[in-house]
Design brief:
The structure holds 3 protein chains of 3 kinds. By secondary structure, chain A is α+β, with helices and mostly antiparallel strands. Chain A is built from 8 helices and 4 strands, in the order H-H-H-E-H-E-E-H-E-H-H-H. Chain A has a two-stranded antiparallel sheet. In chain A, strands 2-3 form a two-stranded antiparallel ribbon. By secondary structure, chain B is mostly helical. Chain B has a domain of 84 residues: NADH-ubiquinone/plastoquinone oxidoreductase chain 6, subunit NuoJ (Four Helix Bundle (Hemerythrin (Met), subunit A), Up-down Bundle), CATH 1.20.120. The chains are: A alpha+beta, B mainly alpha, C mainly alpha. At the A-C interface, helix 3 of A face helix 1 and helix 12 of C.
């Protein structure tokens, strides 16, 4: 399918009507139709098709808990909080933009100044019962600190799981093993971001 | 011994079933008991080595009582009791009891006087269906054919009665030609 | 054979048939799910046991331990009896079916038939027909409108196919001249060319179609078609009572497969180099597979189409078949 066809909103032009004959009314015509349908072998075509598929054994089942389909990097599931790669500090600077922009009003954060006079987040929770996974928080975050992860399996004993700061934050040992991969998805900088940066004209 | 046990068991079940059929106010109980009784009766045929008749009893009454169920389904809410209004219950009870008694006496009298013997005893080597067939197509040929013709007549008249407006669809009718509903609501 | 021996042999046979066919009916559900899945490019049950073989066991445990719900407004005794009728008639019908050729075990000759009624065919068909009382009573007693619709469809179905079943096997019975399944089987003992299906192809097709209707399999799956009437007669059922309907249905399928192979496909006679016992297992398995195959391939029809098909097409065909057979036999 070409892009133009795909973008065409006026689909009615492309509709094709399948010719359907009116059902016969005269008894003789009805009888002929029955005969035709009986001996045409349409039923056996159906039998053959399913038998062929059985013999071909071309199975499409994904046995879900054992094997999972890869999900898109832009998939928006439960949130994650990232750390800085080198120092291991939290990326979040406590600016509160995510809290402000959240349209479902589900993010709550508590901040204070630490000993270095740096803003530090003490509490960070997301009410997943209200979250609509719109992705605005990840998009607005200037530090790429809050992102959407790929974890879509949300079964747990407590409804408060996954949503506290300690659940979302990358664990330190995890970071040290280099397992925190840079987020490629929604709101992330594009791979060629460096090339696209324009130098600030210093003329003024 | 087995025959005696089977006979008394079947008799008890049959009597109980038909009593329920008559006594119960719930149409579903009555019909189910009737069906069960009719099928249990086939047990007597099997006991008498009349396999063919027993099987025919099962087949015929399965279909027949099934049609009764269809009527029951259409006429009653079969899960509720039917309200009966009998003006003179004593009279009804007396009359029906008397007629039942008369029937029993009329049927049992020959057995009591020991004058009953099979007209067509089971012959060794002749199978059931063959025996039935021979009797049907020789001695009882005329009643058999008359019954067949009567059934044919009944079938044709049934088709004619039911089929008068068969070419008109009840569901595809528009409001203008809706004569049944208008007539019914007035 | 003395009376005691007879009683012991019969009881053993009954127990074997009951156990074997309950297990087979359960295993039939597994086979059905697997075959349907493969035909629809799925895998089917995979998790319980190797390739999901023990799924039957898991289902059985589930059904046995589930709560047995009886709705408040239902007619309780009949509601509770109905599934028992379904399962019982299916097994009673098996009583008159000769399952295998005679064989010897520990020096005793075994006739693998519980009761050799000499009108076997009629007995089996009659008992199977009365098995349709199960869905009828279930639907009418459960005080549920879907159930009532299912029950009404049961009546329609029985009154439609019953005549066709009887008339379709009439022609082969005329050729054989006996109603005993063993006699019918022995009639075809001459090998592949002696199978009645070659002489009576029309009767075979009619019998198969009526058999589908009798077991409520897919082209005539009216009684409990989910898309139309939720679950039909079984809407209010749960637990083992619901399971009994299923055991009855699968046992009926096996019985019809046995009947078709005994009457039309040469029964348990030796087939070339294949011994008789294996031959009938092969035939029955193929027919069982055919039941599943059509379920994957064919759409199901409306109740009025079933009546139209049975009364206007199949019944005249069956009668014409009988007339022609009679003429040929006369000449």
């Amino acid at each position: 399918m070409s892009l133009e066809q795909f973008k065409d909103r006026n689909v009615s032009q492309n509709y094709r009507f399948i010719p359907v004959d009116k059902p016969p009314t005269a008894p003789m015509d009805k009888f002929k139709q029955v005969l035709k349908r009986t001996f045409k072998g349409e039923l056996f075509v159906g039998l053959w098709v399913v038998f062929r598929e059985m013999v071909k054994f071309n199975i499409h089942t994904v046995q879900y808990p054992k094997e999972k389909l890869p999900i898109s990097p832009r998939y928006r599931a439960v949130h994650k909080l990232y750390r800085l790669l080198e120092s291991g500090y939290e990326r979040c600077i406590g600016c509160g933009l995510c809290e402000k922009i959240c349209i479902a009003n589900c993010i709550r954060m508590d901040t204070r100044y630490d000993e270095n006079q740096r803003k530090e987040v003490t509490e960070y929770t997301i009410n997943l019962g209200r979250c609509i996974f719109c992705g605005y928080c990840a998009e607005v975050c200037p530090e790429l600190a809050i992102v959407h992860g790929g974890r879509y399996e949300n079964a747990s004993e407590q409804r408060a799981h996954f949503v506290l700061k300690e659940d979302m934050l990358t664990p330190l040992d995890f970071l040290k093993e280099g397992k925190q991969e840079e987020f490629p998805g929604f709101g992330a900088v594009s791979p060629n971001a460096d090339e696209r940066i324009k130098k600030t004209p210093l003329a003024y | 011994m087995f025959e005696a046990i089977a006979f008394y068991t079947f008799s008890a079940i049959t009597i109980v079933m038909f009593t329920i059929t008559v006594m119960s106010k719930n149409a579903l109980y009555s019909m189910s008991a009737l069906a069960a009784g009719m099928i249990i009766i086939s047990g007597f045929f099997f006991l008498l080595d009349a396999d063919f008749l027993g099987v025919v009893q099962i087949i015929v009454y399965t279909g027949a009582v099934m049609a009764l169920y269809a009527f029951g389904m259409m006429f009653f809410d079969t899960t509720r009791e039917v309200k009966e209004s009998i003006r003179a219950p004593k009279l009804v009870f007396l009359l029906s009891g008397m007629s039942a008694l008369l029937l029993v006496i009329a049927l049992v009298a020959p057995i009591v006087s020991d004058h009953i013997e099979p007209l067509y005893p089971v012959v060794e080597g002749v199978e059931n269906p063959q025996a039935v067939g021979i009797v049907l197509f020789t001695k009882y040929l005329v009643p058999f054919e008359v019954a067949a013709v009567m059934l044919l007549v009944a079938m044709i008249s049934g088709i004619i009665l039911a089929g008068k407006k068969m070419d008109k669809s009840l569901t595809l009718k528009t409001d203008g030609e809706d004569e049944f509903q208008n007539g019914g609501s007035k | 054979m003395t009376l005691t021996e007879f009683v012991i042999a019969t009881v053993v046979k009954i127990l074997v048939v009951l156990g074997l066919f309950s297990a087979l009916a359960g295993f039939g559900t597994y086979l059905e799910r697997k075959v349907l899945a493969f035909m629809q490019r799925r895998l089917g049950p995979m998790h319980v046991g190797p390739y999901g073989v023990l799924q039957v066991l898991a289902d059985g445990i589930k059904l046995f331990t589930k709560e047995d719900i009886v709705p408040q407004n239902s007619v309780k005794p009949i509601f509770m009896i109905a599934p028992v009728i379904g399962a019982a008639t299916a097994f009673i019908a098996l009583a008159a079916v000769p399952l295998f050729p005679e064989f010897e075990i520990f020096g005793i000759t075994v006739h693998p038939i519980i009761s050799d009624v000499n009108v076997g065919v009629l007995f089996v068909l009659g008992v199977m027909a009365s098995g349709l009382y199960a869905p009828l009573l279930a639907g009418m007693a459960s005080a549920n409108k879907w159930g009532l619709l299912g029950a009404a469809r049961t009546v329609i179905q029985l009154l439609s196919y019953e005549v066709v079943t009887g008339l379709s096997i009439m022609a082969p019975l005329m050729m054989v001249g006996s109603l005993s399944l063993i006699d019918i089987n022995n009639y075809q003992s001459g090998g592949f060319g002696d199978w009645i299906v070659w002489a009576q192809p029309v009767a075979f097709v009619l019998f198969l179609i009526a058999g589908f209707a009798e077991t409520n399999r897919t082209p005539f799956d009216l009684l409990e078609h989910e898309a139309e009437i939720i679950s039909g007669y079984a809407t209010e059922y749960s637990g083992m009572r619901w399971g009994m309907f299923f055991i009855g249905e699968y046992a009926n399928m096996i019985t019809i497969a046995f009947l078709a192979s005994l009457i039309f496909l040469g029964g348990f006679n030796d087939w070339g180099f294949i011994p008789g016992g294996l031959a009938i297992i092969l035939k029955v398995s193929f027919l069982f597979f055919f039941f599943l195959w059509t379920r994957a391939a064919w759409p199901h029809i409306r109740p009025d189409q079933l009546m139209w098909l049975c009364w206007k097409i199949l019944l005249p065909l069956a009668v014409i078949n009988i007339v022609i057979t009679g003429l040929v036999l006369m000449i």
